[in-house]
């Protein structure tokens, strides 16, 4: 057991120079462009429960605007689809398909620094109780908001070197 784990560790250690030689660098490493994004955004709030959850996650990941240089505006759309229907014609499963468009603009004005769209899908079951179904839908929407916010932050971090000067 120990020798197998030790061999894996040694092979991983031997592979590290090859990974760094191919241009790999930690996204939030010392001097990395993504590291400068912490506290750099004045976020435009979305005034609905889904938008609140999205903004909350963006704030967790990007930090409070300590020295904002950019405005981050996000708009979102959710489409609800019926996915499973019982024999008595009641719906037992719903699918939520969400997209979020984001635009980063410099606070001093000028054209957009970057923009894009992210998408995610989730589902929830409609159980016998209407209250439980509403709670399941609210949880699904919150999960979507977190996923979309994480995708936005990942894209911003991965491309920061191209637009954050």
UniProtKB/TrEMBL annotation:
Keywords: Signal
InterPro entries the record matches: LPS_assembly_LptE, TAT_signal
GO biological process: one example: Gram-negative-bacterium-type cell outer membrane assembly
GO cellular component, one term: outer membrane
Signal sequence, renumbered to the chain: 1-25
Coiled coil: none
UniProt cross-references to PROSITE patterns, sorted A to Z: PROKAR_LIPOPROTEIN, TAT
Domain of life: Bacteria
UniProt protein name: LPS-assembly lipoprotein
Organism: Halovulum marinum
Lineage: Bacteria, Pseudomonadati, Pseudomonadota, Alphaproteobacteria, Rhodobacterales
């Amino acid at each position: 057991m120990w020798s197998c784990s030790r061999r894996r560790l040694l092979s991983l250690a031997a592979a590290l120079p090859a990974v760094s030689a191919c241009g790999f660098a930690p996204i939030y490493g010392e001097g990395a462009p993504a590291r400068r994004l912490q506290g750099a955004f004045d976020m435009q709030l979305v005034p609905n429960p889904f938008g609140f959850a999205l903004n909350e996650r963006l704030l967790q990941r990007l930090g409070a605007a300590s020295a904002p240089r950019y405005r981050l505006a996000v708009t979102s759309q959710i489409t609800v689809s019926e996915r499973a229907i019982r024999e008595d014609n009641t719906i037992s499963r719903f699918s939520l398909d969400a997209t979020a468009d984001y635009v980063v603009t410099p606070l001093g004005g000028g054209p957009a620094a970057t923009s894009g769209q992210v998408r995610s899908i989730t589902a929830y079951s409609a159980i016998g109780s209407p209250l439980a179904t509403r709670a399941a839908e609210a949880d699904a929407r919150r999960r979507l908001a977190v996923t979309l916010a994480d995708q936005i932050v990942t894209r911003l971090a991965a491309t920061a070197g191209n637009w954050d000067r």
